[in-house]
Specification:
alpha+beta
Length: 482
């Protein structure tokens, strides 16, 4: 497991450095297992030397500079500092993860990083120091404030009391955001702009997006998402920054940001293992027998054990009210109906497509035998017949395509309304909700079984004018297993 070195503040997110946020976002996007080791700011150089982490840069006089972020990867025994060097390392070492750099864009991305720093990062720094410094331990605060005062040649208290200077800086900050907004608006001058996608370079998140997202995570981590400062920034440029954060915050927080790990259980052992763990059944069958199915969770902080995905998500919303909420008040009935209808039209028809591969190649021994029995009893299809009968094979694919088309019709309904659209890429607007997770999970299913480069997924992805391929492009950066 990779160790990410960062220094903590006293704010809820702890991490506030935009450079550390870059690496954290990249690791989350790539789904690389990692943990954070916190180092007090005043001990950075001492501790990084103890860990044999190289300096991130060198002064003109040859003095080494030790900064975060830094990582240690035990799988390769590599130690690296500097956010861009770390991301380049992750690209080279984990080639099967989402790529953040497209060939030929390296120079452009480097220039973007430099220019974005001048316009978005520099002017806001003094305001973040005012908030962060009091939250650090005494020695770290003194060092952090000392560096700040040396750079701006002014005492922190003097800056805090200088209303005229702060007003001017806020104007400079807004002017910088306006400049970056202008870059992002260049695509709107192209007649093809509507098919480009929500990210800087198109439909997939890239390093430029990580840089931009980290510099939005910074003021949010320091001031808070409900703060006057963030509301001010978020509203600039017709709400672009609030909307952009709505896209990236699920990646920044791993949606709810709840620390967790996965325990793997063989399919044939689910009931036995759940009983050992005191996990309740997910439902009671009509004959009164309990049904034990995954997923299930055990929350040690509340001593609660729950099975059934929707029940788990409802619990998480209630137990962790300060995290991203998946069900808005008043939408519970509509969401329940959506879940049932989507299951009927997408998940049910998809099962015969993925089951043969799962039974024959994905599982083995008792697990495969039990899964086969359940599948054949439920669907009345025989696995061998699905593989050998071309007429039945074509029917199964036709049924699935018709089901996806029905759901596509629901998603198209908003475009036929004369009212103002929901205003975002998700089902109910700018924020991802439970309905989006239901849909995302049922797209992740065939991709997990067949592979994203498979003929089967390409076929599904192209249905309904490529809606499912594009939809997965939005979802896949949140598909992270811990």
């Amino acid at each position: 497991m990779i160790t990410l070195y960062d220094f903590p503040s006293g704010h809820p997110t702890k991490s506030f450095s935009p450079y550390a946020w870059r690496v954290r976002l990249a690791l989350n996007l790539k789904g690389i297992e990692h943990k954070t080791e916190w180092i007090q700011y005043h001990e950075l150089e001492k501790r990084l030397k103890e860990f044999n982490i190289p300096p991130s840069a060198t002064e003109e006089d040859g003095t080494p500079i030790y900064t975060i972020p830094a990582i240690y990867d035990p799988s390769t025994n590599s130690r690296i500092s500097d956010s861009l060097k770390i991301i380049e390392y992750l690209e080279a070492t984990y080639p099967d993860t989402p790529k953040l750099l497209s060939p030929g864009t390296e120079v452009l991305t480097t220039a973007f990083e430099w220019a974005e720093k001048q316009h978005m990062r520099r002017a806001i720094w003094p305001f973040t120091v005012l908030k962060v410094a009091p939250s650090l331990d005494e020695k770290s605060s003194a060092k952090y404030v000392g560096i700040f005062e040396a750079v701006i040649n002014m005492k922190l208290e003097e800056f805090g009391a200088n209303t005229a200077m702060k007003d001017k800086l806020w104007k400079d900050i807004e002017k910088g955001y306006n400049t970056v907004d202008g870059w992002l608006r260049t695509t709107s001058k192209s007649p093809e702009s509507q098919i480009v996608g929500p990210w800087v370079t198109g439909k997939e998140i890239k390093l430029a997006d990580i840089i931009l997202a980290a510099d939005l995570a910074w003021p949010i981590a320091v001031f808070g998402e409900d703060s006057e400062e963030w509301r001010r920034i978020g509203a600039w440029n017709d709400g672009r920054w609030r909307d952009y954060w709505g896209l990236v915050k699920q990646l920044a927080l791993n949606l709810k940001g709840i620390e967790h790990n996965t325990e793997w259980i063989q399919y044939s052992d689910i009931e036995k293992r759940f009983k050992e763990l005191d996990i309740p059944p997910s439902e009671i069958r009509s004959d009164g027998t309990p049904a034990y199915t995954i997923p299930a969770i055990s929350d040690s902080s509340t001593n609660v054990r729950i099975s059934d995905s929707v029940k788990i998500l409802e619990y998480l919303d209630k137990a962790y009210p300060d995290t991203h909420q998946l069900v808005d008040p008043g939408t519970e009935v509509l969401t329940a109906a959506f879940a049932w209808a989507e299951r009927k039209n997408m998940r049910g028809p998809t099962w015969p497509l993925v089951a043969p591969n799962t039974i024959i190649s994905g599982l083995s021994g008792p697990c495969s035998a039990k899964y086969r029995r359940n599948f054949e009893a439920w669907t009345k299809y025989q696995v061998e017949e699905l593989q050998s009968n071309p007429v039945l094979f074509d029917k199964v694919w036709k049924d699935a395509r018709e089901g996806y088309a029905i759901v596509d019709g629901w998603l198209n309904a908003a475009s036929k309304s004369t009212d103002e659209p929901a205003g975002g890429p998700w089902i109910t607007g700018k924020d991802i909700k439970l309905a989006d997770l239901i849909l995302a999970a049922d797209l992740a299913w065939p991709i997990a079984v067949f592979g994203e480069d498979s003929e089967e997924w390409r076929k599904i992805g192209e249905w309904n004018d490529g809606r499912w391929r594009e939809r997965w492009g939005l979802f896949k950066q949140y598909a992270i297993i811990h």
